[in-house]
Automatic annotation (TrEMBL):
<dbReference type="Pfam" id="PF02170">
    <property type="entry name" value="PAZ"/>
</dbReference>
<dbReference type="InterPro" id="IPR036085">
    <property type="entry name" value="PAZ_dom_sf"/>
</dbReference>
<feature type="domain" description="PAZ">
    <location>
        <begin position="9"/>
        <end position="71"/>
    </location>
</feature>
<dbReference type="GO" id="GO:0003723">
    <property type="term" value="F:RNA binding"/>
</dbReference>
<dbReference type="InterPro" id="IPR003100">
    <property type="entry name" value="PAZ_dom"/>
</dbReference>
<protein>
    <submittedName>
        <fullName>PAZ domain protein</fullName>
    </submittedName>
</protein>
Length: 184
């Protein structure tokens, strides 16, 4: 179905013909901010469609839809981004045990390569780690290899990281309760 705009889509109600914008105001006392945005449509059996303003819809946290599926529904990601004024803040000085790193104040720190001989100011002791992998993005073995590389880097800089302290947990991204359970 082609993209429809709120101001152009009308349907019959008990009160007469009404636009989606008018319906939301009449039914929910909601003044829509973006009446020129396209509508999302939902097929309603053989009787037609339901129409929803995009501004009232929410994407579920962690929901992933591939571009082929979007293209099949005539939806695509925009190439033109919204622009706004911003201020780039200088990176702060980073203090280590015997040294500090002062990034170039003329702009952002593009690359930060820590000298392997530099020790952390107050190195942590790590006794237990959960490595969360969402939506089977990698195998348990790959997740453990990642953690072991991270632990080696920490040890080289003074951290105490116990061997075999990592537990890999495979989680679906949309289930908040399960995620919270593993990080209590």
């Amino acid at each position: 179905m082609p993209c429809l705009m709120l101001i152009r889509q009308f349907f019959d109600t008990n009160e007469g013909e009404m636009s989606v914008q008018q319906y939301f105001y009449h039914q929910y006392h909601m003044e829509l901010k973006y009446p020129k945005l396209p509508l999302a449509t939902e097929r309603k059996g053989t009787s037609g469609f339901n129409f929803y303003p995009l501004e009232v819809l929410m994407i579920e946290r962690g929901q992933r839809v591939d571009n082929r599926r979007l293209a099949g529904q005539l939806v695509q990601a925009a190439d033109n981004f919204i622009t706004c004024e911003a201020k780039v803040l200088s990176a702060p000085e980073i203090k280590y045990k015997t040294d500090s790193l002062q990034p170039d104040r003329s702009g952002p720190m593009v690359s930060w390569r820590l000298n392997p001989r530099i020790q952390f100011l107050r190195p942590a002791t790590v006794t237990s780690v959960s490595v969360a992998v969402f939506d089977r993005a990698m195998t348990d073995v790959q997740a453990l290899e990642f953690f072991q590389a991270l632990a080696r880097g920490g040890r080289a800089r003074g951290m105490s990281v116990q061997d075999n302290c990592a537990k890999v947990v495979q989680l679906p991204s949309e289930v908040d309760e399960i995620t919270e359970e593993h990080f209590r």
